[in-house]
């Protein structure tokens, strides 16, 4: 095999491996993630899997309890649908504000 032909074969092999590794990385990152659900979607889902919860904190629904526990109601981002009562244990500064979007 001539040297230019060897270089061409090496280039094709390296590019093929790079594409395969990139595809594996993309698949792993998407397959390992938890879906982000709204309160309406969460209420209609069967239990048994970890999910991320996303929505808007309702106005005047935040109640600071003892021992760093905060209760608040979370609604869909669009403002329609059902609300969900969330009990959050704080580990630092207050993580929620009225009418702000959060992901838990």
What can you see in these coordinates?
The chain is an alpha+beta fold. The chain has two domains: 1-33; 34-104, no CATH class. It contains two helices and six strands. It has helices at residues 3-31, 39-43; strands at residues 36-37, 52-57, 63-64, 69-75, 84-89, 101-103. A hairpin with a 4-residue loop joins strand 3 (63-64) and strand 4 (69-75). The chain is elongated and about 75 Å long. It starts with a helix and ends with a strand.
Summarize the topology.
Elements lengths: L2 H29 L4 E2 L1 H5 L8 E6 L5 E2 L4 E7 L8 E6 L11 E3 L1
- Give the helix tally: 2
Q: Sheet bearing the most strands, described?
A: 6 strands, mixed
Structural class by sheet pairing and helices: alpha+beta
Helix content: 25-40%
Strand content: 25-35%
The chain-level mean pLDDT equals 79
The first-to-last residue Cα distance is 59 Å
Name the helix and strand elements from N-terminus to C-terminus, one letter apiece. HEHEEEEE
**What does the radius of gyration come to?**
24 Å
Q: What's the overall geometry?
A: elongated
Number of domains: 2
Spans where pLDDT lies below 50 across 5 or more residues? none
Strands, count: 6
Attribute tags:
single chain, 104 residues, alpha+beta, six-stranded mixed β-sheet, elongated
């Amino acid at each position: 095999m001539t040297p230019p032909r060897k270089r061409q074969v090496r280039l094709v092999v390296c590019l093929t491996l790079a594409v395969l590794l990139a595809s594996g990385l993309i698949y792993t990152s998407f397959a390992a993630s938890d879906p982000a659900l709204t309160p309406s979607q969460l209420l209609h889902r069967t239990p048994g899997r970890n999910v991320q919860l996303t929505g808007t904190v309702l106005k005047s629904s935040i109640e600071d309890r003892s021992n760093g526990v905060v209760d608040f109601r979370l609604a869909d981002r669009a403002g329609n649908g059902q609300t969900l009562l969330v009990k959050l244990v704080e580990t630092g500064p207050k993580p929620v504000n009225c009418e702000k979007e959060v992901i838990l």
